[in-house]
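Protein entry
_____________
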Amino acid sequence: KQWYQRRVAITAGSRKDDEDRNYSTHKTGQSKRKRTYKPEYTSIQSFFPNPDAPWKTKAYSPDIIGLHQEILDFAKWMQPTKEEKRLRGCVVERVKRIVHQLWPCARVEIFGSYRTGLYLPTSDIDIVIFGEWAYPPLRALERRLIENCVAEPASIKVLDKASVPIIKLTDAMTKIKLDISFNTNNCIQSAEKIMDLLKEHPYLDKLVLVLKQFLLQRHLNEVFMGGLGSYCLTLMVVSLLQNTPRCTKRLEHQNLGVLLIEFFELFGVRFNYASTGIRICNGGSFFNKDECSEMKTSILCIEDPCQPGHDIARGSYCIYVVKEAFKKAYYWLKRVVLSNAIQCNQGYLMTDSILGTIIKVDTSIVEYRNWIAKNWHQLSYKLPHPEDFVLNYLQQSRLKINNKKTQNSQQTDPWPGKNSELSDTSTDCSPVASSNDDGTTDESSSDGSV
């Protein structure tokens, strides 16, 4: 017994000496055991590129203001480039020409995020075809798309049993996803309504892009799989902005980090999905679902602003999974912001990217955008271009030619003194008008060959 007590005392003393000499110890709430390592946090002044956060171009402040700046940079990085816009326009034009070959009187329109501009680099293009058919000709269009090598047969899915029958496909040349529907009512009006809301709320587009990427990486953005669609998500953000008292005035000066955390808190912790519905019209409000018998059955209830009394979120049957993701994001962001504020005085941070703790950008997205920028010129020769793009290109080329002409005509002579000395005899040597012996003039423009 004496030997055992002596051995325990020696071991405890040596352990304490090692801790005092080499490491700093701290307790955790999980266990009482002391850790013998120093936490490897990031220094405040250090900056290094994060492969999971390609939007990060500088060192942000470790507080809610840094989160605001990071959201702005994320939205700026997600904005499509000129090549990406033109490439999507070429894909839509090719589908239009195939549709007009089958049905010359049909009308092809785009809607959704591509029309409003709230699309990610990997978002799909929503196309609607208007025409006179007894039933949507899904199979006929599917066969023609395969015959014209627009998409491979394995990439086409015909959802004829869905509430809105559509054709889902991936373009074989550009890898852009498309959703094609027939005679979908109110889709154009919905897109125009979103565009009006974007003008009314300056920061709406930035919050929507962050939340769309948040749902995308968790595979909760597909409506036909029970997820939350882009249209419903945008209206939920608008509902937050309408029902927040301080957001009704001077919204352009609000902090995006605070708004993002409040969105996660509202729809992840506080909102009662069982008895409450969302309404956007007339300034926005929440209503009791028992008042509308048609909306009582759905879990998430959002009234369509273009068609009052119609529920547009009845297909999101996995909304409780989405709610749990919002709840975890709220508690995590709150923890990170508070821990950074506490550890800022010590010179170390929990993370160098607050937004990067809940959102990651896959390297495949970065590689895909680089591939478009590199191969755009080769793809532009293989794809048909829209008429407006061709007209704009011709106008720009004509303006360049006219600018070159004006610059050439306004160029001064490099030897003005020499010309003044040789100005005894006035001779017209311009290429535009040259006099002959018989008094006639030969008009020949320097750009006549062009």
The longest helix spans residues 319-343.
